[in-house]
Amino acid sequence: MEKRIGTITVFIHDRATASQINSILSLYAGIIVARQGLPFRDRTISVISLIVEGDTDEINALSGKLGKLAGVEVKAVISKI
Questions:
Q1: pTM above 0.90, yes or no
Q2: How many domains does the chain have?
Q3: Which end is more exposed in the chain, N or C (fewer Cβ atoms within 10 Å of the end residue's Cβ)?
Q4: What are the pLDDT digits (tens) for 45-71?
Q5: How many Å apart are CA 14 and CA 72, to the nearest integer?
Q6: What are the counts of helices (DSSP H) followed by strands (DSSP E) for the chain?
Q7: Which residues, at least 6 apart from 22, have a Cβ–Cβ distance to it below 8 Å?
């Protein structure tokens, strides 16, 4: 399958899921090109922004696993080329 570049934005509403999120990200480290995390200390939300490169199945699997966690919202965008 052809590799594509994409972005995954993870909104974390419950910091208790942080260890689960990090475990999932470690499993998919091979497709993660860059990662930036921003904790909003004055609000109850944190944001992780990922740049990924992989086939659509890998990118969708990563975003799907993250999205199944309680208190986590995920949005993914994959390039057409």
A1: yes
A2: 1
A3: C
A4: 999 999 999 999 999 999 999 999 999
A5: 7
A6: 2, 4
A7: none
Which run of H or E residues covers position 53? strand 45-54
What CATH number is attached to the domain comprising 71?
3.30.70.1150
Contacts of 69 (CB under 8 A, 6+ apart): 17, 20, 21, 24
> For residue 80, with 0-12 CB atoms within 10 Å meaning exposed, 13-18 middle and 19 or more buried, which class applies?
exposed
> What is the side-by-side order of every strand in the sheet holding 72-78?
32-40, 45-54, 4-12, 72-78
- Output the CA angle 38-72-78, nearest 5 degrees: 80
